[in-house]
Amino acid sequence: MEKIAFLGLGHMGEPMARHLLAAGHPLVVWNRTAAKAGPLVAAGARATADPADAVRDADVVITMLAGPEAVREIADAILPALRPGAHWVEMSTVGPDTVRELGERMPAGVTLVDAPVMGSTDKAAAGRLGILAGGDAAGVEHILARFGPVTRTGAPGTGAALKLVVNTAVIGGVALVAEAMKLADALGLAEGTARDALAGGPLGGAVARAFAEGVHFGSDLAVKDITLATESARLPAMEAVLGHFAAAAADPDVVHEDIARAVTHIRARRDA
After folding, report:
1. Angle at the Cα of 135 (from 132 to 141), degrees rounded to 5?
2. How far is 80 from 72, CA to CA, in rounded Å?
3. CA 168, 171, 177, 182 torsion: positive or negative?
4. Which has the closest alpha carbon to 260: 161, 121, 96?
5. Residue 269 predicted with pLDDT over 90
6. To bridge 2 with a disulfide, which of 39, 44, 59, 164 should be the other Cys (CB 3.0-4.6 Å)?
7. Are the C-beta atoms of 75 and 104 separated by less than 8 Å?
8. Residue 166: pLDDT above 80?
9. Sign of the CA dihedral with 257 first, then 263, 264, and 268 last
10. What single DSSP character describes residue 49?
11. What contacts 233, CB < 8 A, 6 or more positions away?
12. Are 99 and 111 contacting, i.e. CB atoms less than 8 angstroms apart?
């Protein structure tokens, strides 16, 4: 079994790492907040305080981090320690530009695969994420399949690009549902009546996500993803959506909560 280093044990990373342990892979884990590694250590992983130490003997390195800056910082730490023949699977949502930057920095003999995921914490726990794999994923596809079905997207960076497209549609749909519900509130409609009508129409999936429970995708992460999207193309509607989620992320009670909390924030917002 391949030796795997997993860096980033947040809401998504921790359950994903558990699937690798369950499959029998020797696993070394690292997280900026070291205490989060405790449950995985109890389940059989080895933790380290040094990301370079985590990857030194790894056949496969998986990163699931907050965004481009965190990935660049980790790259500075681990690139000198990656051994020839290793695969780095970057699973964070960082956009194709960051993937291209990393590709230019890869040591000889190291393969970079961009493989962000579709789905939230419930699908991560169940092993039913959708994996969008760009680049030469042949050597790690069987490992990625531990997390859910794998879609090969093409050249390096295409997985990251498609993830940005998917997240833009999801976040935009949730914001549109929030505004539709805000209109229903203003017109005096019962919440259940408006919600059921929207759920039965073309926005049914967005309605389900806007009112989802037991999942997690923070408003701060939504801001990061929309920013990446609007920096890549002129997207006037998403620029308005960015304003909604930036306002939600400015509220300390909402910033790290699931985007369903932002829906409530948007509905109550009086300045937009």
Report:
1. 60
2. 13
3. negative
4. 121
5. no
6. 59
7. no
8. yes
9. positive
10. S
11. none
12. no
Hey, CA dihedral for 214, 163, 22, 73, is it positive or negative?
negative
- DSSP string for 246-267: HHHHTSTTTTTSBHHHHHHHHH
Question: 231 vs 66, 95, 163, 187, 221, CA distance in Å?
Answer: 18, 10, 15, 36, 15
Compute the chain's Rg from CA coordinates: 19
DSSP SS3 for 190:
coil
Query: What's the confidence (pLDDT) of residue 109?
Result: 97
DSSP secondary structure of 193-225: HHHHHHHTSTTHHHHHHHT--S---BHHHHHHH
Q: Is 234 left (phi over 0), alpha (psi -120 to 50) or beta?
A: beta
Report yes or no: 4 and 21 within 8 Å, Cβ to Cβ: no
Instruction: Tell me if residue 268 falls in helix, strand or coil.
Output: helix
Q: Give the residue numbers marked as catalytic.
A: 163
Closest by CA to 21, choosing from 43, 46, 3, is 43
Give the C-alpha distances (Å, rounded to integers) separating 163 from 10, 131, 153, 168, 173.
19, 9, 10, 8, 15
Tokens encoding 173? 């749909």
Q: Which two tokens stand for residue 239?
A: 């620029």
Per-residue pLDDT averaged across 151-155, rounded? 98
